[in-house]
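Retro notes, structure queue

What went well: the backlog is down to a handful. What didn't: a couple of records were mislabeled last round, so from now on we paste the full input next to the output in the thread. Example, using TonB-dependent receptor from Flagellimonas lutaonensis:
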Amino acid sequence: MLKSFILPIAFITLFNLNVSSQEQVFFIGKVTDSLNIGLEGANILLLNKEGKFPPSFGISGVDGRFRVPIRSNNTYELKISFIGYQSIEKNLQVKDKDLAMDFVMYESPNILEEVVIKYKPALQIKKDTLLYQVDSFASGKERKLAELLKKLPGIDVTKDGEVIVNNKKVTKVLVEGKTFFDGRTKMAVENIPADAINEVQIIDGFNETSFLKEFIDSEDMAMNLVLKEDKKKFVFGDIEAGLGVEEKYRFHPSLFKYGPKFISNLIADYNNTPERSFTIRDYISFEGELTPEKFREILKSPVARFISQSDFNKNDHFFAGLNNQWNPDEKNELRLFAIGLKDDYESNMFSSRIYLANQNPERRVNSANSSSRLNLLKLNYKFTPQENFKLSFLAEYSGAKNTSKETNITMSDVESDYTSSNNLRDENLEISLDVAKKFTENNSAVANLAYYWYDSNKIQQWDSNINFYPNSLNLMTANRYLLQSPEVSKRNEFKYDIKDYYKPSRTNLLTSKIKGEINNIKINTGLGQLLDSDSLFEISNFNNFFSSTYANILLGLGYKQIFGDFNLNFDLDYQYLYWIDKFDDRRQSVVNQNLLPEFSLEWQRSDNFNISFSYSKERYAPFSFQRFPGLRLQDFNIIYGGQANLQQSISETFVLKASNYRPYGLSIYTSLSYSKYRNQIINSFNFSGISGSITPINVQDDGDRYNINLRLTYGRPYWKMSVNNIWSENSFPTFYNSILATNKAKTLISDFNMKTLFEDYPNIAIGLQNNFSINESLNFSNKTNLLDAEIQFNYDIKDWKIEGSYKQTLYNNLTESNKFDYNNIGASIFYNKEDSPWEFGVNGFNLGNSKRIISNSTSSQLFQESTTLLFPRTIMLNIFYKF
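Corresponding output:
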């Protein structure tokens, strides 16, 4: 199977590379100033006189040397530009061999005249900004923004809609300087029409408040899209409609209106295909800036569990997003952003489990019908009365309703079947106020005040005709055993963050801050048995009330020093942390005081080359649900009970990074990180058979995590290639039936990706990913290798656009000698007559009609190997209308 897949890849790859290399030669040389000093960063652009080929582009290196691929036996118009110097323009006749020339650039006699630029280079690189002139790279046949970005040197777009530039993720998308919806890249790359874009601007170290940029080192990277002039005057976008076999359908409108005072975007998607417009990644990004604790809290939330479900074989999906922005004048801005989501889906899974506490096996068959409803609303007002002052008010609401009903068969010592249901209602409200003020050229301050309200109601039920629940529940004898567990959680939280920045000189910065949060949480839990007489038998120790008041206050000082090419940062925070927990008639209070240092040193030899080292120390308080000592039925076979006397855990992290970036040529990114965890909170498992209890405890044994990442990218005008290797190793202690064990997880992920960017030939994209993992625990070990090999093909020929993909997955559980392979074949063909707003086409998903997929996962509780039914073959007839 693998040979049959690799041979066609090799043949097509060699064919395409041969086509491109037959006529390729190089334009080489050196750019210097009048003193014969090499100019690094000069833009070299060669435009084919006959317009047969896209422009060839290069940038001079450290010594001013350049090497640009061109086509032999052609005439080019050469343009060399460098800020502050007179441009060079020259016609070149290229023969059948490399062309070598050197150039001397002279300073512009009047720098002010440089402001009026008649010609813009295809790519300009400034210290923190990349400027792409889209027409120099696009063919005009790109449909969405994602297709356009993939053709820009140095930019990659992942399957999840993330935009990667210089190995960094773009964190915010703007159109005409205004935030696009909530700033997420996925919604932008999948919906904005490519033909609307005139220029793409990548801004590193982005800060929405411009005067703060000289005070704050931001890790954000923004992408600003400049529209073509004709798109700024009218409504533009497209509408897609599709019908398929077995009553499949899709309706997907994307409408955009940009004006000087009013902006409106509407995106919707209604389908019953495998595609989803809103996923767990989108939900997390909607939450905004996250602390590690908040991130873990979101992932553990019931809402995230529903949204993250991707293994479904039936799906009804509705998504709608609205983004309106008003700018009545330069001082005021009002934004309204709303999302509505409705998902109804069905999933079927068979799993084989091993409980690590006692090596007890279990086989489980699960069929689930689930429904999710989610509404998100943001109202944002910004007031900028003067250049040195900015105020922002934000009100955000989210509401979720999720239900599921599952039918389960569990087989261990005995075979049992049961049904379970979950009903969840979640509501969140956030109100925040941000103020930024620049007092003098050397002094600025910012303040953030925020209030959060959270309300959650959850009801879980388990229903079986036999009593296979843990013996400690002491259930009443009945014809059917029906258990019901309600849980109500409420939280009120206030946060504040005030910082002052003072620059005694151009190369020094002092930062002082006070930051904190105060919250109150109340949790009501219960567990009861519904008897045949419709009466409720409450189970002792499971009906509890818990309240907690938590405060975390930080006082900090920071110092930044720039000397030459080096950037030094040092921060020291004093932390005052306390919590008061009340459970029944018991009261537990804890107070901690800590010093938390943070240090970083960066060497920026040039705009392209960077080395940095950082160190940080953090202390984490146990989550409230871990400190809640009441018992809860987590699943039909698992009881969870918290501990009131849990203490803080400590982590220290060391990170070393290096990068050397080039839009064309070889770029290198590497990082090495090490984290040590002390006094960490782990779970203690006590199991008999497949039933047991879980209790969080502090342990003195240290945990470690290592990560090594090496990424290489190589780009030319007609193709891109990347190789990425990530090695991670994690060890942490766990108690199994009172025995202390060390769990180890080792993973090596290797990626190879290559794609061509021809204009007149078919293009291919090849992707290989190998994931090798080793998991070891008490009397347990597993080795698994997962290989994904994929080839994608696209060809634009006249008015036709043809695309195809073939993905082969090879799963190999080396320990159990369990092998499995499956494929996913996709294809599409579309017709769009030039200058016509209509486009027609057919596309298909899972054309080989693969039935199932096998995967495995390991946690501190169990090892699970799962077989999941796949979404069946789907073929759709589509119509697009673009306006």
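Agreed that this is the format going forward. Reviewer comment attached to the example: Residues 122-233 form a domain with the Ferric Hydroxamate Uptake Protein; Chain A, domain 1 fold (CATH 2.170.130.10).
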